[in-house]
Design a protein that fits this description.
Elements (H helix, E strand, L loop, with lengths): L4 H18 L17 H16 L5 E3 L5 E5 L11 E6 L14 E3 L7 E3 L2 E6 L15 E3 L8 H19 L8 E6 L20 E6 L4 E6 L1 E10 L15 H9 L17 E9 L3 E10 L2 H21 L4 E10 L3 H4 L3 H13 L5 E5 L4 H7 L6 E3 L11 E3 H17 L4
Parallel strand pairs: 3-8, 3-9, 9-16, 10-15
Antiparallel strand pairs: 1-2, 2-8, 4-7, 5-6, 7-17, 10-16, 11-13, 11-14, 12-13
């Protein structure tokens, strides 16, 4: 199936317009929240998407009490027997960087020079930050103003799926089988699939949550979360000798024993890591939260063994110190499930090629809702959304990525009608 210039222009303009709208909606998730979704604004974005889908004439839309949006598109005439497939993106943005009051900026016809940010004089974006930036000279690039992240992770995926829905409604020649769309809350805090109703999903899905244009991801980290509690004893510092057990000071020393060569800032490619994300407390009690990541689950077991040994050593070294460890498995490497699903991956490769893009097979140095779904029997590889430097004030996306990801969805839906 060839896409006419009219269709290509339509999905470009529609995806960009929607993306610029969606990133302005504050949907940062909150790992400390007891509600689901963790923040109400995610529910509000879901409500907006539900309304927009109905405006497109798509009425089979469910927005449930947990914030999930499920959408069913009936097949094109003659495609009723085609395999049902799904496309997924997440509603939230990372809590690591401010996601409130995002003001997107379009840098027209990027000339390869340093990109400056209007709300942060000390911030700039260069090839050193992201070598891929050199591939987008001459294109339009979208950033924030530097005081927030942009939110391409995953507002880009949402915009691309919505643009495809709009194209299916406008151009009946874009045939497809039964399609399910699902927008998830709380992916960034590892809870995206926690309350998913898998009965609403087809047996094959694709997430639109990958990075640079052309990327197809079939492998992700094995992931663990570690909570550590340090319990000490506080007394007046003037009379503390041989009595005080300073919990937060000891916690700092404990965490400094993590091997520096296994921290995120020292690792790449298939190297795993320890990542400290939070340390708080006082002399009496301190808590630390970290994540463990590796493509090989056995390497994470070794990291947990090291933490346990370190705990025993510190409790002996500091008399009166009590420590508690809690290990929580977050998700499995989805490769173990997808390596059996050659057809699902091969069709994604072909769809990317049909959009005129080189396929780049990557391993995700992160996670995806596709890992949870794959483990629950719904194989779900990850297709590029097109942004780079996610979770950063330097985050950016070329408008071409928004167009091409939308085209890939259209091609992929068509390919499944012929299998």
């Amino acid at each position: 199936m060839d896409l006419s210039k009219e269709i290509q222009d339509f999905v470009l303009n529609d995806a960009v317009e929607r993306f610029l709208k969606y990133v302005k909606i504050w949907t940062t998730s909150d790992d400390n929240s007891d509600s689901f979704p963790s923040t109400n604004n995610q529910f509000e974005l879901g409500r907006l998407l539900s309304e927009e889908l109905k405006i497109l004439g798509i009425n089979n839309v469910v927005h449930d009490k947990f914030g999930y949006v499920y959408v069913s598109l009936p097949p094109s005439e003659g495609c009723e027997k085609a395999q049902s497939i799904g496309f997924i993106a997440h509603l939230d943005t990372s809590p690591a960087v401010n996601g409130k009051d995002v003001k997107p900026v379009i840098h027209k016809n990027y000339d390869g020079s340093e990109i400056k940010f209007a709300q942060n004089d000390e911030l700039s974006l260069t090839f050193k930050d992201s070598p891929q930036l050199a591939n987008y000279i001459g294109l339009d690039i979208i950033t924030s103003q530097g005081d927030t992240l942009l939110g391409a992770d995953d507002k880009a995926g949402i915009a691309e799926i919505m643009a495809a829905c709009a194209a299916w409604q406008r151009f009946p020649e874009l045939i497809h089988g039964p399609i399910t769309i699902c927008f998830f809350p709380d992916e960034e805090i590892g809870k995206g699939a926690e309350k998913i109703d898998v009965r609403e999903l087809p047996p094959v899905c694709y997430t639109l949550d990958g990075s640079e244009i052309g990327v197809l991801e079939t492998e992700c980290f094995d992931a663990w979360k570690v909570n550590i509690t340090f319990k000490g004893l506080n007394v007046h510092p003037g009379y503390a000798k041989d009595v005080m057990v300073n919990a937060i000071h000891i916690a700092s020393r404990f965490l400094s024993e993590l091997p520096e060569e296994q921290l995120p800032e020292s690792t790449e490619d298939r190297e795993g890591f320890y990542h400290l994300s939070k340390l708080q407390g006082n002399e009496e009690e301190a808590t630390a939260t970290m994540i463990l990541r590796d493509f090989n689950i056995d390497n994470n077991y070794r990291r947990m063994d090291y933490i346990n040994v370190l705990k025993e050593f510190f409790e002996k070294l500091y008399s009166g110190l009590k420590m508690e460890l809690e290990f929580e498995h977050q998700y499995l490497n989805m490769l173990r499930f997808l390596k059996k699903e050659e057809k699902i991956v091969d069709l994604a490769k072909k769809a990317i090629e049909m959009a005129g893009i080189e396929v780049k097979i990557h391993s995700i140095r992160g996670g995806t809702d596709g890992a949870h779904l794959s483990a629950r029997g719904i194989p779900t590889p990850n297709i590029f959304a097109g942004g780079l430097l996610f979770h950063s004030r330097k985050e950016y996306i070329p408008t071409l990525s928004l167009q091409k990801a939308s085209e890939v969805i259209l091609h992929l839906a068509n390919l499944w009608t012929n299998t």
